[in-house]
TrEMBL record:
InterPro entries the UniProt entry points to: FAD-dep_OxRdtase_2_FAD-bd, FAD/NAD-bd_sf, Fum_R/Succ_DH_flav-like_C_sf, Fum_Rdtase/Succ_DH_flav-like_C, NadB, Succ_DH/fumarate_Rdtase_cat_sf
Domain spans labelled Fumarate reductase/succinate dehydrogenase flavoprotein-like C-terminal: 434-526
Catalytic activity from the UniProt record: L-aspartate + O2 = iminosuccinate + H2O2
Organism: Ferviditalea candida
EC number: 1.4.3.16
Family: Belongs to the FAD-dependent oxidoreductase 2 family. NadB subfamily.
Compartmental location: Cytoplasm
Gene Ontology MF term list: L-aspartate oxidase activity
Enzyme class: oxidoreductase
Protein name according to UniProt: L-aspartate oxidase
Alphabetical keyword list: FAD, Flavoprotein, Oxidoreductase, Pyridine nucleotide biosynthesis
Record flagged with keyword Protein transport: no
Cofactor(s) essential for the protein: FAD
Length: 537
């Protein structure tokens, strides 16, 4: 059984820090929400590393929004719903497509310099989009530009206090109301931070898998702590694998943006054959889950470990101008994007599910909000449309701040004690445990799943559970515990879903089954597992 708290404490003995809004995480969701909230509130932003350590920093392709004259919210909505494979909440998608442009205006006002073409915002194409609607910055460094601009604002804002290198261990709740969180300072001291609203902006779970585009901070902390606190967790069986991630000896798994295919790149197997014709009429620009699985099938068929991405037929000038970061990165490993085919393979990239929220970003626990990848707003369904993630963070970040403004002050919190029984540190070093967990997930709960593999995975994960009886005290230990929670939830939900849909593919149930499974799976620590119908408006 996953315990309520990861650590022992007595709340009344902990030092207390009071603020208005607690923001946990420093990617686009955390930065944006903090800036908007700071207009009227005192904000405490807590990050376990630094402002530049987030998934956002690595986002290349960009941010999807209805900007062009030939585009419309209806077209963006339609593309999002098709990619989401029948599991999107249409109400949430409507919010996204209508409010996206306002969020983009905010980003520009906050200092983000998007690329321009003839004085207008430049727009590119990505998979499963029917229009060019992706804004980008410095060609392929969109996330880094957003982080630069927003960090600059946050650092100079007197209403925002930033705590770097602080680890949020658990949320403090009573009667389904969130009062704040237990935070460990860099020197190991624990404190109770309390505020009228707590906003999880802690990102995703890429580190569940050995091969991922995510940085090492992506350990699912927000999802795990919200689950322990009794929040509803939804759609966590849907993990998106990005189709084209650099696969080259000695090089890290570096993202090669979908925009490269958007600008004309094609995929070839190791025999040099273009293969997407055999998989989908939209070829290389089919939805991501389809391209990723097609690549895995080609890899298996040709007994290889990668396929090639080929953009050598486009002009070298365009390639260098549009993709300066990717071009330079590949060149560091002797690969020239303008003349060489680039070896790529899929890697874990994004979790569609997370902490379930309403249309104002509030979770099933009052005063606890979730924004960005940690959340399950209903926008992404079973498969996220490319570049909808940054848009989701700003659209729902705006709504969360509006909702926080309507909150009354917190009432006094009754005393809470976590059981004091843990004495010994974990037996095995957690770094070994993390590698083992990543192996379990890759083998049993990645691209192609089955009841046999998922059951085996679940058994292997259960064997790690005694960790929760140990006295955890270091960041790595908390992170591993959080990964173990998320791995268990993902595997449980994937085992339950006996069909294939979007990013979830079951070899033993290869068809989509709308009659039985056009539903969400919701996991709750206290109430167990339930099914929820898809919200259609
Ligand atoms: C990419 O540039 O391909 C990543 C964008 C995204 O994940 O939406």
């Amino acid at each position: 059984m996953i315990p309520r708290f990861l650590t022992d404490f007595s709340l009344e003995r902990l030092p207390r820090v009071k603020t208005d809004v607690i923001v946990i995480g420093s990617g686009i969701a955390g930065l944006f929400t903090s800036i908007r909230a700071s207009e009227t509130q005192k904000v405490l932003m807590i990050t376990k590393k630094s402002l530049s350590d987030s998934n956002t920093q690595f986002a290349q392709g960009g941010i999807a929004a209805v900007i062009a004259d030939d585009d419309s919210p209806a077209a963006h909505r339609q593309d999002t719903l098709i990619a989401g494979a029948g599991l999107c909440s249409t109400a949430a998608v409507d919010v996204l497509v209508h409010e996206g442009p306002k969020g983009v205006d905010d980003l520009i006002r906050m200092g983000t310099n998007f690329d321009l073409e003839n004085g207008e915002l430049a727009l590119t194409q990505e998979g499963a989009h029917s229009r060019r609607r992706i804004l980008h910055a410095h060609g392929d460094a969109t996330g880094a530009e957003i982080v630069r601009a927003l960090s600059d604002q946050v650092l100079h804002n007197k209403n925002i206090e930033i705590w770097n290198d602080h680890f949020v261990i658990d949320l403090i709740t009573y009667d389904d109301v969130c009062y704040g969180a237990i935070v460990q300072k860099p020197d190991g001291q624990k404190i109770f931070v309390t505020g009228k609203a707590t906003v999880l902006c802690s990102g995703g779970v890429g580190q569940l898998y050995r091969y991922t585009t995510n940085p090492d901070v992506a350990t699912g902390d927000g999802i795990a702590m919200a689950y322990r606190a009794g929040a509803d967790i939804r759609d966590v069986e849907f993990i998106q694998f990005h189709p084209t991630v650099l696969y080259y000896p000695g090089a890290p798994r570096f993202l090669i943006s979908e925009a490269v295919r958007g600008e004309g790149a094609i995929l070839r197997n190791i025999n040099g054959e273009r293969f997407m014709e055999r998989y989908h009429p939209q070829l290389e620009l089919a939805p991501r889950d389809i391209v990723a699985r097609a690549i895995v099938s080609e890899i298996e068929r040709t007994k290889s470990t990668f396929v090639y991405l080929d953009i050598t037929h486009e002009s070298a000038e365009m390639v260098k101008h549009r993709f300066p970061t990717i071009y330079q990165f590949c060149l560091n490993y002797g690969l020239d994007l303008t003349t060489d085919w680039i070896p790529v393979a899929p890697a874990a990239h994004y979790m569609m599910g997370g902490v379930k929220t309403d249309l104002n970003g509030e979770t099933s626990i009052r005063r606890l909000f979730a924004c960005g990848e940690v959340s399950a707003t209903g926008v992404h369904g079973a498969n996220r449309l490319a570049s909808n993630s940054l848009s989701e963070a700003i659209v729902f970040g705006r709504r969360i701040v509006n909702q926080i403004l309507s909150l009354t002050p917190l009432e006094a919190l009754p005393e809470i004690k976590a059981e004091l029984h843990r004495q010994d540190p974990p037996i095995q070093p957690v770094i070994e445990k993390r590698l083992k967990l990543q192996k379990i997930m890759l083998r049993n709960a990645a691209f192609k799943r089955s009841a046999i593999g998922l059951s085996k995975g679940l058994e292997d994960l259960k064997r790690q559970m005694p960790l929760f009886n140990a006295l955890l005290s270091r960041r790595e230990e908390y992170e591993f515990a959080n990964l173990l929670v998320c791995a268990t939830l993902t595997t449980q939900a994937a085992l339950l879903r006996e069909e294939s849909r979007g990013a979830h593919y079951r070899e033993d149930f290869p068809e989509r089954d709308d009659l039985r499974w056009r539903k969400h799976i919701v996991l709750n620590r206290e109430k167990g597992i339930s099914e929820e119908s898809v919200e259609n408006v």
